[in-house]
Design goal:
The structure is a single chain. By secondary structure, the protein is mostly helical. The chain has four helices and no strands. The longest helix has 42 residues. The chain is elongated.
Length: 131
């Protein structure tokens, strides 16, 4: 009986790790793609049509993050993920409007919030790799 309980406990622990790991993979993908799109946009800041495409992609990333299942192990970090993605979306919206200053402000705010996110995840024992 004890052997069965230990086996079940081990399975539950592994499942929790796998689930949090999947969340971290999804989060890393969303954050890294936001970085990539932001860098691409900054290099071509005057292309408003490109900025609209980047904004639509940023909206989709934010929507995906809002609908993700968040494991209890990292629930404290998820609001920071949303804030990072919101700033990237707002940066792209600013670029689509031709407002370079606002673009840079939101990119800086996204970077600051990402540092907070990484710190929270590290404190929870779930660090993510930097892009």
């Amino acid at each position: 009986m004890k052997l069965i309980l230990r086996a079940l406990l081990a399975i539950l622990c592994i499942t929790g790790v796998a689930w949090a790991g999947s969340y971290l993979d999804r989060t890393t993908l969303l954050i890294n793609e936001s970085h990539r799109a932001g860098a691409f946009l900054r290099q071509r800041g005057n292309d408003r049509e490109l900025a609209r495409v980047v904004q639509k992609a940023a909206e989709a990333r934010l929507d995906a993050a809002q609908k993700m299942t968040v494991p209890k192990e990292v629930v404290l970090a998820h609001p920071h993920v949303l804030i990072v993605l919101e700033h990237h979306e707002r940066a792209a919206a600013a670029a689509a409007e031709g407002d370079t200053q606002r673009l840079l402000i939101h990119e800086l705010k996204a970077d600051e919030e990402e540092r907070v996110l990484r710190s929270v995840l590290e404190q929870l024992g779930w660090p993510i790799a930097k892009p």
